[in-house]
Amino acid sequence: MELSPTADTKAHVIAIYHDKPHYACSDCSAVIALQDELISKSFSGREGRGFLIHSAVNVKHGKKEDRTLLTGVHTVADVFCVGCNGRLGWFYVKASDSSQKYKEGKYLLERAKLVKDNAWKLDE
């Protein structure tokens, strides 16, 4: 489904995430990412464990900056929840080292900032 840049994407996001396991903001419960988008749970964020995730919704990016991380210098932009403006992690814009290029265009989301919603349905 191709959306115009001015389209209201709320209905589109709801349709994609409805009844699917996802991660939500721990402060305001805004949907952030599908669990299917998870690449790795073995990353480190500023405040502990982090998840490397393919894509995210309901987030806004801060200013790009070069940051020295455990795996070298990366150009990143902090990521904030659109619901509560809480910092969730960062977006990898560019990696200096060729072995780290796989992170470009991906999100590092802090485990402590997310709630896992499995979208389970109970039999009635």
UniProtKB/TrEMBL annotation:
RNA-binding keyword on record: no
Pfam families referenced in this protein's UniProt entry, alphabetically: Yippee-Mis18
Domain Yippee: 21-118
PROSITE patterns reported in the protein's UniProt record: YIPPEE
Listed GO MF terms: metal ion binding
Record keywords: Metal-binding, Zinc
Similarity-based family: Belongs to the yippee family.
Protein's recorded name: Protein yippee-like
Source organism phylogeny: Eukaryota, Fungi, Dikarya, Basidiomycota, Agaricomycotina
